[in-house]
Amino acid sequence: MKQIIWALQAAIFSTLTWVAAFLPASITYRLGALAGLLIPLIVPKRRAIAIDNISRALPFMKAHPLWDSPCDDPRELARETFKNLGRSLMEVCRLYQGRGEDVIASIELRGRENYEAARAKGKGLLFFTGHCGNWELLALAFSSLFGEGMSVVARRQNNPFLNRMVERMRMSYNSRVIYKRGALKGILTALKKRELVGILADQAVFAEDGALIDVMGRKAWASKAPVIIAQKSGAPLLPTFIHREGERQVITFYPEHRFGGDMSDEGIRRETQALSRYVENFVVAHPTQWYWVHRRWKRAGETS
Fold first, then answer.
1. Fewer Cβ close by (within 10 Å): the C or N end of the chain?
2. Within a domain: 304
């Protein structure tokens, strides 16, 4: 019975992506925003989490020098967040079905010299990012932009039919997934081969896998894997983020993050905190383009 349900889910997913992909590109932006407004109606708990997270983070964000949002209403910021999620979903549907040339063509690159300087070292390259903007586009567009694909670290889908489908779609962009279980070996192997690896490291982890840091004024567990991987591999780590400016996408490569040599628990915690600041800066500058709907502060004495 489970196999039938999984097959049905995959068929529905495929149908929806085809429908979205074959709609006129000119209406994708507007239709995506409308689709995003349906998300909180389907999963209202996620809307409540987003509003609560934004409300608690607002004092930190408004005191930050990068804050320039004209809106400080948590409900309105959450509403715009869901609209941006809907836009990203529509764009990814087009990409998955091979009709996303217009989406990739809309990308502007900033800080490309930072990428080229890191790549010139002749090693693998570790991209540090988060669930920011259209993060899936960031990975899928890389082959078209630079002629080489990026591997990303992700969780395997529970539905094997859906998992295989997404794998095939990603491979058409020369992008592959390194699954979280046993990921360290796969990442180090890829970096040793001078490949590109992207890590999204802005979600809560268990205490044994993380370091307790400050995230927008509240304690949170953050993955220490990026620090350990960069130190073990010797590969440059490049903070890289994508954000939306109207119907245009912007990928920004920041200068390579320079690590100290302290690999004690406290040294790793300090470096993990330093990496988290890149995500914080992104969120403050683009408060409706982060994945507020996850429980970032769970297991750290916080309620969400």
1. N
2. no
Tell me whether residue 179 is in a domain. Answer: yes
- pTM: predicted TM-score of the whole model, two decimal places: 0.93
Q: Which pair of structure tokens corresponds to residue 17? A: 């992506």
Q: Which residue type occupies 95?
A: L
- Alpha-carbon distance of 299 to 222, in angstroms, equals 11
Domain region containing 139: 2-285
Does residue 191 contact residue 197 with C-beta atoms inside 8 Å? yes
The answer to the question of residue 89 being in a domain is yes
Residue 279 CA: distances (Å) to CA of 62, 128, 214, 300: 16, 9, 12, 19
Contacts of 10 by beta carbon, 8 Å cutoff, 6+ apart: 159, 161, 162, 165
Residue 103 · residue 249 · CB < 8 Å: yes
* Distance of alpha carbon 221 from alpha carbon 213, whole angstroms: 6
Closest CA to 196 of 216, 176, 223: 176
Alpha helix locations (H) across 210-295? 225-233, 265-285
Residue 16 within a domain: yes
**Burial category of 28 from C-beta neighbours within 10 Å (exposed 0-12, middle 13-18, buried 19 and up):** buried
Choose among 185, 158, 202: nearest CA to 296: 202
pLDDT mean for each 10 residues of the chain (304 residues): 74 79 84 92 94 98 97 97 95 87 93 97 95 94 91 80 76 83 88 95 93 96 96 96 94 96 92 98 98 93 64
- pLDDT reported for residue 23: 84
Q: How far apart are CA 7 and CA 164, in angstroms?
A: 11
Overall domain count for the chain: 1
What is the rounded distance in angstroms from the CA atom of residue 231 to the CA atom of residue 89?
Answer: 35
| Cβ atoms < 10 Å from Cβ of 63 | 10
Helix (H) or strand (E) holding 151: strand 150-154
Pick from 149, 110, 156: which is nearest to 255 by CA? 110
Alpha helices in 120-159 (DSSP H): 135-140, 142-146
> Residue 294 burial (CB < 10 Å; 0-12/13-18/19+)?
middle
